[in-house]
Amino acid sequence: xxxxxxxxxxxxxxxxxxxxxxxxxxxxxxxxxxxxxxxxxxxxxxxxxxxxxxxxxxxxxxxxxxxxxxxxxxxxxxxxxxxxxxxxxxxxxxxxxxxxxxxxxxxxxxxxxxxxxxxxxxxxxxxxxxxxxxxxxxxxxxxxxxxxx
Length: 149
Description:
Blueprint: H1 3-43, H2 51-72, H3 79-89, H4 96-102, H5 109-117, H6 121-148
Helix pairs in contact: 1-2, 1-3, 1-6, 3-4, 4-5
C-alpha cells in the first residue's frame, strides 16, 4: 500500500468518524433539550403544551451542534492536512509521509514509502478516533436515558 493510499484510507476513516461524532453530539443535544422541557413541565405545568415549538427548538439546537462539529472537521478534506495529522501522531515518520506525497517522482520516494510501511498508521488512526467518538457516544446514551426517564 502506498503512502497516498494510506492517507486516503485515513481520510475516509476520519470523515466517517467526524460525521458519526457530529450526529451523536447533535442527537444528544436534541434529547437533552427535550428532556429539559419535560422536566420543566414538572416544575411549571403546561410548559410542554407547545409540543411542535418545543420539538423545533430541540431539532434546531441539535442541528446547530452537529453543524458546529462538522465545521470543526472541515480541515480533513485536504490530503495534506491528513498527512500532517498522521505525522503528528507518529513522530517516528520524521515527515517522510508528507515528503513522499509531495515528491512522488523523487528517487528517494521508495525509501520513504518503506519507512511509512513500518508504522501502524491504521492502529494509530483508530485509537485517535476512539478517543473522539467515546465521549460523544457516552453523552448520547446519557441524554437518551435522561429523555427516557
